């Protein structure tokens, strides 16, 4: 989970800046304090819906949370379309195919089926896809349309 280290560091930084405990942040997000503690230590991957709640809580971008930018927020967050639909739109925009993504990245073809049926990707997968497609995570999920 090396690419998620930026997220763990950023979360710890934001919690310290806002004087938040794992209990208070967990309660605000509707997750357990143990979940927040594991995110902060990089022991647990965060899924897209939880990542969005966290970004909304701190009024920042997903890329800022992931440690991919130092810009807190440079757009007005939009309601997100279903992830699979947005991924397909970005793939079309970039001329990428499902086959190319599966060959180039450590993701399985079955992920696409899962996403089509409403399952959420984790942060590491979002970062890998965003890097490959040369877009921000926020663009990949449709928050900065």
TrEMBL record:
Source organism superkingdom: Bacteria
Domain HTH cro/C1-type: 11-65, 119-140
Keywords: DNA-binding
Keyword Transferase: no
Short name of one Pfam family: HTH_26
SMART domains: HTH_XRE
GO molecular function, one term: DNA binding
Sequence intervals crossing the membrane: none
InterPro entries the UniProt entry points to: Cro/C1-type_HTH, Lambda_DNA-bd_dom_sf
PANTHER family: HTH-TYPE TRANSCRIPTIONAL REGULATOR XRE (PTHR46558:SF11), TRACRIPTIONAL REGULATORY PROTEIN-RELATED-RELATED (PTHR46558)
Name of the protein in its database record: Helix-turn-helix domain-containing protein
């Amino acid at each position: 989970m090396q690419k998620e280290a930026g997220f763990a560091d950023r979360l710890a930084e934001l919690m310290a800046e806002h004087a938040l405990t794992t209990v208070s942040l967990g309660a605000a997000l509707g997750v357990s304090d143990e979940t927040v503690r594991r995110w902060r230590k990089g022991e647990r991957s965060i899924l897209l819906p939880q990542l969005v709640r966290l970004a909304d809580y701190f009024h920042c971008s997903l890329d800022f949370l992931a440690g991919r930018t130092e810009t807190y927020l440079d757009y007005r967050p939009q309601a997100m379309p279903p992830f699979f639909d947005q991924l397909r739109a970005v793939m079309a925009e970039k001329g990428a195919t499902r086959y190319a993504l599966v060959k180039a990245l450590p993701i399985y073809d079955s992920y696409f089926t899962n996403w089509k049926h409403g399952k959420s990707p984790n942060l590491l997968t979002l970062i890998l896809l965003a890097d490959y497609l040369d877009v921000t995570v926020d663009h990949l999920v449709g928050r900065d349309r």
